[in-house]
Amino acid sequence: MLELQKAGTDSRRVVHIGTLTIGASRPVLIAGPCSVEPGYVAQASVLAETGVDGLRAGVFKPRTHPDSFQGMGLEALPLLAEARRLTGLPLISEVMSPTEAEAIGDHVDGFQVGARNMQNYRLLEALGDLGRPVILKRGLSATIDEWVASSEYLRKRGNDNVVLCERGIRTFETRTRNTLDVSAVVVARELTDLPVIVDPSHAAGRREWVPALARAALAVGADGLLVEAHPTPAEAWSDGAQTIDLAALADLAELVLDSRLPGLRVV
Ligand code: PEP
Ligand code: MN
Q1: Do β-strands 20-22 and 15-17 pair in parallel, antiparallel, or remain unpaired?
Q2: Cα gap 39→130, rounded to integer Å
Q3: 114 CB near ligand 1 (under 6 Å)
Q4: Whose CA is closest to 247, among 31, 21, 26, 25?
Q5: 2 partner at 20 to 30 Å CA-CA among 69, 143, 216, 247?
Q6: Is the minimum distance from the CB of 58 to ligand 1 under 6 angstroms?
Q7: Strand, helix or coil at 233?
Q8: CA 117, CA 167: separation in Å to the nearest integer?
Q9: Of all protein residues, whose CA lies closest to atom 8 belonging to ligand 1?
Q10: pTM of the predicted model, to two decimals?
Q11: Distance (Å, rounded) from C-alpha 189 to C-alpha 196?
Q12: In this structure, which residue's CA is closest to atom 1 in ligand 1?
């Protein structure tokens, strides 16, 4: 086992992603479609009305098969700019290389490092140098220690604006897309001072199961939720099956507002 920083609950780090404050008084809700699509601006506007705290959407998509939609790439940038302007909400998008980070840096408030790149150390070092906030997802088969060790690559370069995100791991179970490891939230919050959020969408793989997993995440003390949502999930360009609709998103927005202060949560 690695010797990792043990911070305890008194000295938890608060991370700001634009207007978003993660790790403070209540859990946050970041939501949006898996990918930026041509209709993104209108989608972001209606999603914002549900009361979400931040927006997500992938410009560059890490797809398992090369023939699957790879994201709009740089054509998405004007849409991101307009969505941010209209909603006033901070926006997070995934990057897979330092070049992609440079390309979209001015159009996002925070970067996501996806599960497939959790151990892409040159990427982590580059994002460490850029200093922008990073949501670091847990790798598909990464241990909690490996995940936390990856966060140290960012911090060693002076970037402490890091949020860990549990998104389910690969196990023998195939009914769910991944197995949500709720214990990871508890353990990671003990091993580090970083906020830990949960992505129930990539864990569940089916939209019907997302609300229950989101509740489980909040019950074990998650500092927020990262959820795939779309006004018409069946039409989403990627990950539609796990994407919730506006009504389900509004319920989650209410749930995070109702959640008690971290120190008062039953964990
Ligand atoms: C995503 O957020 O759309 C994504 C690809 O996530 P993950 O890296 O968790 O698979
Ligand atoms: Mn997705």
Answers
A1: antiparallel
A2: 30
A3: yes
A4: 31
A5: 216
A6: yes
A7: helix
A8: 13
A9: 114
A10: 0.95
A11: 7
A12: 34
Instruction: Give me 87's structure tokens.
Output: 């909603």
How many angstroms separate the CA atoms of 242 and 221, rounded? 23
Report how far Cα 158 is from the mean position of its chain's Cα atoms.
Answer: 21
Mean pLDDT, range 250-254, rounded to an integer: 97
| Pairwise CA distance, residues 103 & 117, whole Å | 18
User: How far apart, in Å, are the Cα atoms of 108 and each of 4, 12, 16, 88?
Assistant: 30, 25, 13, 12
Q: Report the amino acid identity of residue 228.
A: E
Tell me how far apart the alpha carbons of residues 234 and 258 are, in angstroms, rounded to a whole number.
Answer: 29
pLDDT, one tens digit per residue, over 200-246 is 999 999 999 999 999 999 999 999 999 999 999 999 999 999 999 99
Q: Which residues pair with 165 in a beta bridge?
A: 137, 197
For a ligand 1 pocket test, name from 94, 96, 164, 227 the mutation site with the most ligand atoms within 8 angstroms of its C-beta.
94
Cα distance from N-terminal residue to C-terminal residue, the chain: 25
Closest C-alpha residue for ligand 1 atom 10: 115
Give the model confidence (pLDDT) of 98-110 as tens digits.
999 999 999 999 9
Q: Is the dihedral of CA 203, 209, 214, 220 positive or negative?
A: negative
Dist. CA 47–CA 95, nearest whole Å:
23
Q: Tell me how crowded residue 143 is: count the other CB atoms within 10 A of its CB.
A: 14
**205 ligand 1 Cβ < 6 A:** no
CB-CB contact of 115 with 138 (8 Å) = yes
How many whole angstroms separate alpha carbon 236 and alpha carbon 73?
Answer: 17
The DSSP output letter for 262 is G
